[in-house]
Amino acid sequence: EAEVAQSPRYKITEKSQAVAFWCDPISGHATLYWYRQILGQGPELLVQFQDESVVDDSQLPKDRFSAERLKGVDSTLKIQPAELGDSAMYLCASRGELAGGNNEQFFGPGTRLTVL
Amino acid sequence: GQQLNQSPQSMFIQEGEDVSMNCTSSSIFNTWLWYKQEPGEGPVLLIALYKAGELTSNGRLTAQFGITRKDSFLNISASIPSDVGIYFCAGQLNPGNTGKLIFGQGTTLQVKP
Questions:
Q1: How far is A112 from chain B (nearest CA, A)?
Q2: With contacts defined as CB-CB under 8 Å, which chain B residues touch A43?
Q3: Distance from CA of A27 to the nearest CA of B (A)
Q4: Could you tell me where the beta strands, DSSP code E, fall in B1-113?
Q5: Rounded to whole angstroms, how far apart are CA atoms A62 and A93?
Q6: Which of A7, A41, B21, B42 has its Cα between 20 and 30 A from that of A109?
């Protein structure tokens, strides 16, 4: 069964350091999302890509966060510098383009970030 | 950020009991999704709903898209220990095909054998 891949699964870093997360969506999925999930809450969208283009990054803290999907396949989310409040689960999801506007998003296992 | 109102926040039940949880919003949604998340893992899609009034089942799970398009519920019948986890509702707020989801705060389910 096709899955969304993410790495690393866990990351511990010190504040002010740079961190990067990688996501490989389900093959053929044009839409890719990065979400942040704080412990005890639901995921919140950070950025959405359609192929290689950013569709929505209104909730991305652009002073320290950046995301790219250069070839429209895999994607990288970067934080520089990391702050204590960035500790969270970072989830990647992808969605295929099916007739009828199917909105089913499939999530990867996430990257658990701890900032010390 | 904007989130749905999901209740109850947590449930502790006996194995074999039925479970019901729901989500409400002040906004109209055109899609409702229900996910289950286990510790340290990403959410797994359980059921997707696309039409107001739609009732859909997936094994022991049944979900409905409210007539007003502002609510949805999920029922689990005859709960078993592996049902333990956090259940999230998610709604698509905007029309069109952007796919942005708004999530509830989650319902934590614990099942006592």
A1: 8
A2: 43, 88, 101, 103
A3: 18
A4: 5-7, 10-14, 19-24, 31-37, 44-49, 55-58, 61-65, 71-76, 85-92, 101-103, 107-112
A5: 20
A6: B21
Output the six-digit token pair for B105. 């705060």
Q: List, in order, residues 6 or more apart from A11 with CB less than 8 Å away.
A: A19, A21, A111, A112, A113, A114
Reported residue count of chain A is 116
Asked if the bond preceding B43 is cis, omega within 30° of 0, the reply is no
How do the pLDDT tens digits run along chain B, 113 residues long?
556 899 999 999 999 999 999 999 988 888 899 999 999 899 999 999 989 999 999 999 999 999 999 999 999 999 999 999 999 999 987 655 566 889 999 999 999 98
